[in-house]
Amino acid sequence: MPQTQYNLHLKGFVGGADFDRNYVDYVLAKNAGKEVNVLIDLLGGNLATALSIAAAFKNHGKVSVHFVGINNKL
Predict the structure, then answer these.
(1) How confident is the model at residue 3 (pLDDT cuts 50, 70, 90)?
(2) For the chain, how far is it from start to end, CA to CA, in angstroms?
(3) What pLDDT was estimated at residue 74?
């Protein structure tokens, strides 16, 4: 089975120094009209930022998200 190539790795703390909505928007804009594969491995973070990022994924339209690790502390 081929290994998934991720365009976006979100690892660490949502909305902190690790990544925020601006970073996600930047990566999505670089991939406008293309499918984006996202790997998420979170340690927690800001719920409002997480919801904003989820909305950005929905607006982009072609996003596949894969969760690993601890993701239930938002």
Answers:
(1) confident
(2) 32
(3) 47
Helices 47-60, 21-30: inter-axial angle, 10-degree rounding: 10
What are the Cα distances from residue 49, in Å, to 19, 35, 52, 56? 10, 22, 5, 11
Edge-first strand listing for the sheet containing 63-67: 8-14, 36-45, 63-67
d(CA 8, CA 18): 13
Alpha-carbon gap, residue 27 to 49, rounded angstroms: 16
Amino acid 27 reads V
CB 38 within 8 A of CB 7: yes
